[in-house]
Amino acid sequence: MAVEVTSRPRNGDIVKEAMAVLDAKLTRQFAVNMHACVHCGLCFESCHYYLATGDPKLTPAYKAEQLRQLYKRRHDWTGRLLPWWVHAEEATEERLAKLYDVAFGSCTMCRRCNFNCPMGLDMGLMMRTARAALTSVGMIPKGLKDTVDIHLATGNNMGISPEDFVETVEWIEEELQKELGDPTYKIPIDKPGTRYLMCLNPREVKFYPLLFRAQFLTCYAAGEEWGVSSRAWDATNYGLFSGDDAACKQIISHLMDEAERLGVHTIVATECGHGYRSLRWEAQGWYGKPLPVNVMSYVELTAQHIQEGRLKLDPSKNREPVTYHDPCNQARSGGIVDEPRYILNRTVSDFREMTPHGTENFCCGGGGGALTMSEFRERRLEVARIKAEQIKATGAKIVATSCHNCIDQLTEISRHYKLGVKVVNICELVANALILPPKQVAVPAPEVVAPIAVAVDENGFIANPADWSRGAAQFLAARQGYGQALERLGADHWRVVEYIRSYYAQAGVAPSREQICGELHLTGKRFHELFPGTIRTALRIAGLPTSAAGGEPVEESVVR
Amino acid sequence: MQEFVRVLENEVQIAALSIFALMYLTRLLWLRSLRSPREQAAPKGSATKGVLISFGSVFVPWAMESTRKHLAVYVEFALFHIAVAIAIGATFIYPYAPQWLTPTVVDVCVVFLGIGILAGLMRMQRRLAKQELRAINTPDDYFAITVVTIYFATAICALLTKDDWGLVAYFGLTTFLLLYVPLSKVSHYLYMPFTRFYYGFLFGRRGVMAQTRQWRYN
User: Around Cβ A176, how many Cβ atoms within 10 Å?
Assistant: First the structure.
């Protein structure tokens, strides 16, 4: 396969540079993993890629061989003397392209094979090392590279500005004031000396603010002392998936410096599998010195709150059958297996385990940063069949999990395999089951965004997309001529608008209605209620240019 | 002929064993020269327990899904390696403690070596028949199984007949294996203690396989 090299090394010799990185990564752990495979084949059926396709080239051992063959040519006695005898191979650009397909496109580094290997070989370590070598020479999927680059440039992987972050937190604060009947309720931002600093996933801030609303709500109910930082709040670290340790260090340092500045005791990672693993287990290796704070997961904190009797829960509030998907980075690589079950058994009335589950659970297919690699989407969905069958067998209506990549992949699986299940984070179920004290006072009406006039073109789209603001969106909404439906944009309108803008910024094209509904869990009917007329109504309000609508004729009837 | 056999059983074996040891020592020193980063994050479980579980699981086929589902392969693995231990052990006992080789001991050894041959043939058959295994197996893999299976046969021959030619074949092959093994996949046992240690250490510390009490939720 042809691989687009995103940034060539300075000397231009991809092969030489990649092999130099491989040599530099040669630790004792890596070396023994390269030598110890006996090719017994017991790992085959542990891999969802192989199970779903039956392709002999998708077995863990075969995939590891693609790296091992290059290694043997350089570091194995027989590989150097008689390469054909042990299938050792000289590194070439073609070989690296094959390794690229394996390391990024055929392995989510879920480590299920690790737990099924009689030798205990660590596929996660091997594939991450391969990714590191490839990334160093620019052989990295563009989506993954962009995610890391945006994080390094802006402090979070979606490029959300501190102002937008604070605005969203304040909006949630108002929502909670209303819900709790407590107008004095505050979400502490940048508060020094707080005990727990909550770190979020940018997707929560941008698309699913109601998720961190649920987390904040449980902390409030538990009487916990906590806060957020407007400077450093992103728990994710896609450098874990690109193998770029320098990027990992920079991302971790940003967070740790802020935690140290605020003098917090513990960082709480949101329900993000790799984010938790990066912060809890890998961070110290990258940081190069002891972390200034403790790290725990929201799931661990919630389990602790329940165990201490600080949360009152009513499982009858979650009556539908629920199953739990163990995120690989939390269960197999993180040791969080009992906590989610402890929580769910006290939060829902009908909890059903998948078979297998816990450390034996199958990867959903969205791990290893797979969701950022659009080039492997088809394969990702194909191998998700194993997970789809697992879910179907439980008969559950709700799939709970504790990871955003898993959430996205499971949602796509549900749609693709027509499972008809709802996919939720644990915090949503906990928040729903909470028994809170009765409301005390009424709260003020939600914020109204004043319209700001902007110039529009002949199709009703904004003339200069740079002029867009929430006020401009309100102005554009009023122009659509749907009266009350778009008179005042609400929370769901803003979710859709933000999603469209983000998608357009990344893909350069507008998303389809199906994509929007799928990503934001909206029905077609609800979407039409929010944005009457055609998809262009939403695109206009989101401030996209005419060209984003695909150049098709515009229905003048809806443009006023 | 008898003098040749005596030299082959003693001096030649010692020389081959010395080369074998030297090669492994070189390999171990090379491994020792490599960095070995250890996880420093505060543990959630016990690394010691993890390591013990990791090594113990070799003897507990139901601990892993792969061996649980393929119990026959596990049994075959166990019997093959018992035969390996007997064949190697006999190379020391035969020249230095022949009195231990009573007829009963010889019979037991021969039975296990015979089973080892069967296990070797089954392994070879599986590796040849299964497309997935063909895709990863190298000439070294096929040769290693073949030569070890033949080695079992020569051990039977030597133990049963005590014939000079049988002994020449057995000790000749022992010499060859001592020189060949460090260059082949057979040396996996040198690396296996490391890989299982790292596996147990990592996942034991993280509380994946050996959670300490304060972290348990029931």
Answer: 18
